[in-house]
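ugh finaly. both done.
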Amino acid sequence: KGFVPMQGADGWQLSTPTILSMACHRAALEITDKAGIENLRKKSIKLTQYLRFILEEFNLKNDNILNIITPKNVEESGCQLSILVEKNGKELFDKLIQHRIIGDWREPNVIRLSPVPLYNTFEDIFRVGEALS
């Protein structure tokens, strides 16, 4: 009978990745290798701690409406902070989006921000603080 390919887009969902998608993976791996995974982790920790500091400063001035639910211990988390917002969370999230700060909204009241060390900068984190003020 031989090979009978699936019709339409479904045929691209399974099996061996295409050469084009593998080329993208290769490029991404080369960039990561050049940066160095240890260097990326160090920068990840610094960016995330700086973001935590910015959020904690905002919190002190705003009736403690935020609760960072991501573990504080850097060995227990990656480069994402999940922030439980006690009131007006969606409005706060929308304000960040208006300032071109891209995060993730999770119902009912969690904002997730991820400072990715490969392409985010300390200036990006500073901009979060500016957007919140």
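ok and the 2nd:
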Amino acid sequence: MRLDEVNSIIGRKVVVKVPATSANLGPGFDTLGMALSYYDELEVEAVDTTDSVVEVIGEGAGDVPTGDDNLVVKSIAYTFAHYRQPMPGLRLKAKNYIPHGRGMGSSGAAVVSGIMAAKGLLDGLVEMSANDLLQIATELEGHPDNVAPALFGGLTIAWQD
């Protein structure tokens, strides 16, 4: 990436809304997943620093990491690295409505939020296909059953070779 492209990212803001999910439906262990009408919202701005600052409102406030070790930040950084792009500093505001540890895919939603935020920040600089996004999400989450419906919505059937 050229210096002018790096500078073009600074100041970009994106807003992402990702649904909760339910997976392992019926006989579809680790394959069937469904998006629910419950969402986390994320506002991200690329800033001219080396650090990331995360503000968490709602579920996980006080417990979720608020720096570079935050799962959303890690997902953004992983996506930037996947496309060989330098990572800017980030300012994030996470409005978490999906309960943590209740089987509603909060970690999958965090992963997909980060990937979609990276996609928005890199818009016009790199091409990301739907298959690329699912592959990255699956690499981060370990399996596609929660990330596929968080990414695509609806009812999904996903598996890995």
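summary for the 2nd one i guess: The chain has one domain: 3-154.
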